[in-house]
Amino acid sequence: MAANTDHAPQPRAKRDMFSSRNIFILAAIGSAVGLGNIWRFPYVAYDNGGGAFIIPYLIALLCAGLPLLLFDYAIGHRYGGSAPLSFARVQKWMESVGWWQVLVCVIIGIYYAVIVAWALMYTIFSFNKAWESNAEGPGAFLFGDFLQLGDVGVSFDFVPGVLIPHALVWVAVFVIIALGVKRGIAAANIVFLPLLMIMFLALVVQSLFLPGAADGLNALFTPDWGALANPGVWAAAVGQIFFSLSIGFGIMVTYSSYLKRRSDLAGSGAVVGFANSSFEILAGIGVFAALGFMANAAGTGVEDVAGAGIGLAFVAFPTIISQAPFGELIGVLFFGSLLFAGLTSMISIIEVVVAGVRDKLNLTRLQATIAVVVPMAIISLLLFPTASGLYVLDVLDEFVNKFGILAGALVSVIGVAWVARRIPTLSRHLTSVSSIPAGRWWQILISVVVPLALTGILVSEVVTKISEPYGGGDYPTWFLGVFGWGMSALLVVLGIVLAMLPWPKAIRTTFDEQAADDEIRAVMEGWTDDKSPADPDSNPKYDLKETDA
Predict the structure, then answer these.
(1) Rounded to an integer, what distance in angstroms lies between the CA atom of residue 519 and that of residue 327?
(2) What Rg do the C-alpha atoms of the chain give, in angstroms?
(3) I need a labelling partner for 222 at 20 to 30 A (CA). Which of 171, 423, 460, 546 fits?
(4) What mean pLDDT, rounded, does the chain reach?
């Protein structure tokens, strides 16, 4: 018997989308697995209780990370747009939150590119251990020969050795984004993510056979159970999960808007969350096995060589590569892993901006890519491949990355949960399309636990920055004011201003929740085929009055 089509929703127009749920999962993992997984997690775990840190880490994943990941999925999948458009469809005022997240991605994108460029060059340097040309060691090579670091400030003394690979990174990102979701983003992750996994697994295996590797692993995994009584350890666990899952700044909202309606959101979130955490633990094993070798060779303790960030990647690892058997191979594997991890993450960051601009101006993908990537690349190339680029990068990363993402996520959760009161609606949406019900447990976690956790971390960061200026006095007050506090505040203001600009007539910010429920039910019961994600602009059924008036 034919289905009664009188009450079935109208079919939707085609929209960019992932060809399958598995491709979406691959892209989401590619976004989540970034530089922080490799150079941040191992030291955070080591510095916060070693093996005991796994307990707060897993609790943070289950109680804060995965609930917020599903929150982003539900927003993007249900409301079917970029971050600004999706939040505008929740309630009109929340469009500014979406633009805030887009602008955070703008800042992160312009400095992330130069780190990817460094990884590219160090992959090449690994073949002949180029840093050995400086007798003072890898640190002197990095800051002197390679970056040609000058005084703190804003300099336009360009460094050709950084400028050229930096430009190549932007060209690659432009091409991938311009090709679209299927031929660009999905295809890049299909290639880069397996390469990353293969190279990093090979690095871990090789590191485990280095002399002293066991000492490094003992230093990492020996539990300090007393650390569990320290609130700072729990805050560090929540912070690590939060920053490593690509949540809270529009990436997963954007990616989930490219999903078909018949998609297992909760199941996908679980796969992405545990895959990301598994890679972090694998990174910890590989990094600390290598640091154990470094300590063994230097005749010191692991605590004397352990570190995080740029120092770990571009100073400690070159030292290891120079001393280890088959060091050239270790170098290519390590820096190649950084390169591919950085590229997959950067693609997702830039896509957030392209999607927002494309929706707001009703542009084609190529037009939006040109409008976004070209000016971002120009700003990036003016600021970072210079003698002062590292200083600007460091302050922007510390302030905008932390405050922008933390505060933006906190406002979005409070706005959706307590102002718009859409959490029951999102819970119903998640449950209807997922293999794992997002019931009362998810509503409590996302409405209460996540806001409290984010507030705690945010307050702690603000108090720390106020009580002790970042950099311990190395940065002038004006420098921190402009690129730190000032930039963080400017993004909020710009987000509000962008939200005031009108939408094109072809784009509707109106949304009927009941019609959306009807459509989901129709798709899941087989009344209509499932060819595109939510797109109220293409369906007259959504041309209704604003529901949040």
Answers:
(1) 57
(2) 23
(3) 460
(4) 87
Spatial contact of 292 and 458, defined as CB atoms under 8 Å apart: no
Contacts of 25 (CB under 8 A, 6+ apart): 268, 271, 272
CA gap 81, 76 in Å, rounded: 6
Confidence of residue 12 (pLDDT cuts 50, 70, 90): very low
Structure confidence at residue 9 (pLDDT): 37
Q: H helices within 1-65, ranges in order?
A: 21-32, 35-39, 41-47, 54-60
Tokens (6 digits) for 287: 């990094």
Q: Which two tokens stand for residue 106?
A: 């703008």
Measured between alpha carbons, how far is residue 526 from residues 3, 235, 437 in Å?
9, 45, 20
Please name the residue ranges forming H helices in 434-532: 440-444, 450-467, 477-480, 487-500, 513-524
Render pLDDT for 58-105 as a digit per residue (tens, 0 to 9). 999 999 999 999 999 999 999 999 999 999 999 999 999 999 999 999
3-state secondary structure of 200: helix
Distance in angstroms (rounded) separating the CA atoms of residues 468 and 296? 35
Give the integer Cα–Cα distance in Å for 299 and 279. Answer: 30
Prediction pTM value: 0.90
Distance CA 129, CA 319 (A): 10
Inter-residue contact 420 to 414 (CB < 8 Å): no
- CA end-to-end span of the chain, whole Å? 42
Strand partners, 386: 158
- Residues 534, 132: Cα–Cα separation, whole Å: 55
Nearest to 243 by CA among 57, 85, 411: 57
How many residues does the structure list for the chain?
549
The residue behind tokens 């690892």 is 317
Give the residue among 182, 111, 181 at the shortest CA–CA distance from 397: 111
pLDDT per position as a tens digit, 216-248: 999 889 898 999 988 888 888 888 888 888 898
CATH number of 21-529: 1.20.1740.10
CB 204 within 8 A of CB 286: yes
71 Cβ neighbours under 8 A, 6+ residues apart:
247, 413, 416, 426, 446, 450
* Whole-number Å distance between alpha carbons of 282 and 296: 21
Structure tokens of 181? 């979701």
The partner residues of 151 in beta bridges, in order of sequence, read none
- Partnered with residue 158 across adjacent β-strands are 386
